[in-house]
Structures are given as C-alpha cells and as structure tokens.
Design goal:
Blueprint: E1 7-13, E2 18-21, E3 27-41, E4 44-57, H1 58-67, E5 73-86, E6 92-105, H2 119-125
Parallel strand pairs: 4-6
Antiparallel strand pairs: 1-3, 1-5, 2-3, 3-4, 5-6
Helix pairs in contact: 1-2
C-alpha cells in the first residue's frame, strides 16, 4: 500500500526557538506553532487555534533561531512523526510532531524581532533533504 506523509502549515511561533547541538555537532531546534482557523459556532465566526510542535535540523534550525522569535509568522513544510515514551509511572505517552524540511519566513521585520531575513538566509532555510547522520536522529 502506498502512503504519503506531507504537512504544510503557516502560523505564528508560540515561543522562542530553542537551538541545541547533538553530541555529533548537528544543530536541532524545537518550537511551537499556532495555526488559526475560523469556525462558525452558535451562528458566530470565531478563531480556533491549533498548536503544533515542530523540530528543525541543521542550517534550517540555525536560521530559525537567528531570525525568528515568539510571535513571528512563518511557513513550514515537513512530515509527521509520532514520538512515544514511558513516563516515570510507567504509563505510555505519545506526541505527534512535525519534522520540518522547508521553512519560509513571512512578513517584514518589526521592532527587530522575527520577520524576514536576507534572500540567502531564506534560500538556505528552504532545504529539501537533510544530511543528518543516522546516530543524530533521536527517534
């Protein structure tokens, strides 16, 4: 059976980008994204937010950490990945995340936080394939 795993999201960051390095030196960042949708409830249109956790790798992670901050609008494309673990009490937990493969900053720079970067930085962030060593992938 064929399958297809592709996610395209545009929204605003819910927190600052947390950039870290793996033991092998590969950059990895996690950030939250709020995506709004207008829905009709009781005859009124209201905004409904969906919150999504994103994982960025390599140069894309570095550019996001440098140019984006809480509230910044951005466009992301990637794939879904289910993380599973056991908590301290032995209960199984899981969380769906988006592994970002492409990122595009949206809008202009306002007050020095978030916004657009140079065309070179944007091009560098639009990476299709990641050259990440297998041992750096934590899942």
């Amino acid at each position: 059976m064929a399958s297809f795993n592709r996610v395209i999201l545009m929204g605003n960051l819910t927190r600052d980008v947390q950039l870290e390095k793996t033991p092998q030196g590969t950059s990895v960042a996690e950030v939250g994204l709020a995506v709004k949708d207008r829905v009709k409830r009781n005859g009124e249109w209201v905004d409904e937010a969906t919150f999504v956790d994103l994982v960025l790798w390599g140069r894309t992670a570095e550019i996001a950490a440098e140019y984006l901050s809480k509230g910044s609008p951005a466009f992301f494309e990637g794939r879904l990945k289910l993380e599973t673990w056991e908590n301290k009490e032995g209960q199984k937990r899981s969380k769906m995340k988006v592994i970002v493969e492409r990122m595009q900053m949206v809008g202009g720079r306002s007050g020095g936080s978030g916004g657009s970067a140079s065309p070179a930085a944007v091009a560098a962030a639009s990476v299709q394939e990641h050259d990440i060593p297998e041992e750096d992938i934590p899942f």
